[in-house]
Amino acid sequence: MMPLLLLALSAPVSLRLPAPEAHQGAASDGAYVYAVDNDRIGKYRIADGRRVAQWQGERRLFPHMNSCTVAGRELVCAASNYPAVPQTSAVEFFDTRTLRHVRTVSLGFGPGSLTAMDRHGGKWWAVFANYAGRGGEPGRDTRHTLLVRMDDAFRQEQAWTFPAEVLERFAPFSCSGLSWSRDGRLYATGHDRPEMYELALPEAGSQLELRRIVGIASAGQAIDWDPKVPGRLWSIDRAKEEMVASAVPAG
Fold this sequence. Notes:
Blueprint: E1 13-18, E2 25-28, E3 32-36, E4 40-45, E5 51-56, E6 64-71, E7 74-80, E8 88-95, E9 101-109, E10 113-120, E11 123-129, E12 146-150, E13 156-161, H1 164-170, E14 177-180, E15 186-189, E16 195-200, E17 209-215, E18 224-225, E19 232-237, E20 242-247
Antiparallel strand pairs: 1-20, 2-3, 3-4, 4-5, 6-7, 7-8, 8-9, 10-11, 11-12, 12-13, 14-15, 15-16, 16-17, 18-19, 19-20
């Protein structure tokens, strides 16, 4: 097994953008960055930090949007009924230009609460979180958190569990963010630790491999790699209601 590298110092912050919607995560298309909350989204121009569009949903329909990613002209968001149980999940689609809600793909009951989505290699990658407490289901806890690869119809193709070292750092919560980097590396974040985990698909078996732990300025929550600026990671500072761009060193 490769030795683990923990960066004691956080990746340096290059930009902070105030955003009252920055409570669950951030996503970027390179020109704009989107601040995500349970039932609202703000679109901000990176060049000057100005909000250019905003969407507000009805809370009973959007109780918990956790993270989003940009795919083509759509902002694709992971949503669930957290903290209600039994756990149900849905994928919500928005027009990136106007933030108009376009459609919903309901996943119904699943192996957990859908907390993160990303598009990579022509597939959808989704995290179904499980919790050892509020929002958890009897018989399942953090250890049951699952990474699932899906086709375009959101049908499961393969699935992997998380390494014990990462699950211990997630507990009692779970995985809040997932994003593939431009160079094809997989990164995940938890709920409240200022760090992210570089993971790799295993050569055999069903458990992801932990390659390194990277310190970041944000305390968990959803992340997204900037598609235009190499090494730029977007995250949020929930306490300060800011979106944070960090310069992550190459591994």
